[in-house]
Structures are given as structure tokens and as C-alpha cells.
Specification:
Radius of gyration: 38 Å
Strand content: 5-15%
Largest sheet: 3 strands, antiparallel
Distance between the termini: 110 Å
Low-confidence stretches: 15-26, 28-39
Order of helices and strands: HEEHHHHEEEHEE
Number of domains: 2
Number of strands: 7
Helix content: 25-40%
Strand order of the largest sheet: 5-6-7
Length: 242
């Protein structure tokens, strides 16, 4: 009797509950209890993102990625400038040691490679298109840069033939592989590389002509990767020893 009475009560409850409601088992501490939920209110509809929300999230991610990349580029370039300043100071000190032993700074008096490269720009450069330094291009990829740079390498390293191993005279500076071109630590050396991947500029032009160059001793500089014909591509942005 009791069981049949209980089933009758449940049947009545089921008939009273609207058909739009769904009865689900409660998974809480009260085993066997029932809870009602509105039909259609499922996790798939209540937990989903709208298209607008997804677009906003994607836009935020893109903005943050752009900020991170721009900051990383700035830090990398600033580090390269600091490294160039350090290398120029170290090579300048080695040139002083070279002069103490030889009475002169490294100067190519045979092929005049260090005299032919001048750091001083033409005072009338602003009226020229493009403005050209006297008497050499501002572009550090031209051979005048690599010829003068290679001569300095040979005199400071003692490796005058550029094979990276044969030392034929006293060495004043130990060049790391990443300071030499071609990159990779192999092959005959063609120039001393700055942190921007180009040849350092080295000049004794003022010793040959007082109207060229900046220092009566030697000029040593990095063009910082600039090679265009604008004012910013000259000494204002160069890293130099004057």
C-alpha cells in the first residue's frame, strides 16, 4: 500500500509540473533529490562566447603582440649600439698599443686603403642628391670600407693574410668570430664587422689630407646600419671615436 501511494503522489507531481520544465537528478549531498531547470538552458548556451567577445579578445592579443615586438626590437638595437661603442673603444686602445711599438697608427702606405676612406662628409652635402661624403660613399657596403677595415684587422690581429690562423706579426687585439666577415667563423676574413652586420669604417685620411677626416690620428666608426642619403645617416647617428 505504501509503495502504491508513493507512486500515486509522484504521478500527480509529474502532471502538475509544466511541460516546459525539465526534471534532473541533483548531484549534491542529498541523493535522489530533484531540481528543475528551464528547458533549453543548457551549458552549451550559457557558457559560449559571442562573436563580438571573440573579436575583442583577438584584437587585444594583436595589440599586445605588437607592443612586445616593438619593445624587443628597440632593446636589441640599443644593445647593438652599446656593443659597437665597446668594440670601438677596445680597438682604439689596441691602436694606441700598436703606435707605442711602431711609432705610427695602423696606416696602409702601400695601397692607401686607409687614406682613401674618409669619414668627413662634404660641407655642401645638403645641396647634393644624394649627398656624398668626401671622398667616399656613406654606404658601408662599398669596398673602400672593407679594404680599410681588413687592413686594420691584419695589423691588430697579426693575421695579415686573413686565413684566421696564421700569425705573422705581433697581435694587439683578439677578434671574436662574430666580429669578422664573412660571418660564421670560417672563410678568409674580408672586414671587421660591426653589430649591425656591416664593415666598420677606419680611416687615416687626415694624415694624407687635412681637409678630410676628423682626427689627426685615425677615425673609427660604425654607420649603425644606415646607408641612405639623409642627414640622419651621417655622423649624427654614427657610433664613432670623435
Amino acid at each position: 500500500m505504501k509503495n502504491s501511494s508513493r507512486r500515486g503522489v509522484l504521478d500527480i507531481c509529474d502532471s502538475v509540473i509544466p511541460s516546459t520544465l525539465d526534471i534532473r537528478d541533483c548531484r549534491g549531498s542529498h541523493a535522489g533529490c530533484k531540481m528543475r531547470a528551464i528547458t533549453g538552458d543548457t551549458p552549451a548556451t550559457t557558457g559560449a562566447f559571442t562573436l563580438i567577445e571573440l573579436l575583442v579578445v583577438i584584437a587585444i592579443i594583436i595589440i599586445l603582440a605588437g607592443l612586445i615586438l616593438s619593445t624587443a626590437g628597440y632593446v636589441q638595437r640599443k644593445g647593438a649600439r652599446a656593443r659597437a661603442e665597446t668594440e670601438i673603444a677596445a680597438m682604439s686602445a689596441a691602436c694606441e698599443s700598436y703606435k707605442a711599438d711602431n711609432g705610427i697608427y695602423p696606416r696602409d702606405t702601400t695601397n692607401n686603403t686607409t687614406d682613401n676612406l674618409a669619414a668627413l662628409t662634404d660641407p655642401n652635402y645638403a645641396s647634393k642628391t644624394p649627398p656624398d661624403p668626401v671622398p667616399t660613399s656613406y654606404d658601408s657596403t662599398v669596398t673602400a670600407y672593407s679594404f680599410a677595415s681588413f687592413y686594420l684587422y691584419g695589423q691588430l690581429s697579426g693575421n695579415t693574410n686573413g686565413d684566421r690562423s696564421t700569425i705573422s706579426q705581433k697581435a694587439y687585439f683578439l677578434f671574436k668570430p662574430n666580429m669578422l666577415l664573412p660571418a660564421g667563423g670560417t672563410g678568409t676574413v674580408t672586414a671587421i664587422a660591426d653589430p649591425f652586420g656591416n664593415s666598420y669604417g677606419y680611416s687615416t685620411a687626415q694624415q694624407a689630407n687635412s681637409s678630410n677626416g676628423f682626427n689627426p690620428t685615425f677615425d673609427l666608426w660604425s654607420t649603425v646600419g644606415t646607408s641612405n642619403g639623409t642627414d640622419a645617416a651621417y655622423e649624427k647617428t654614427w657610433i664613432k671615436n670623435w
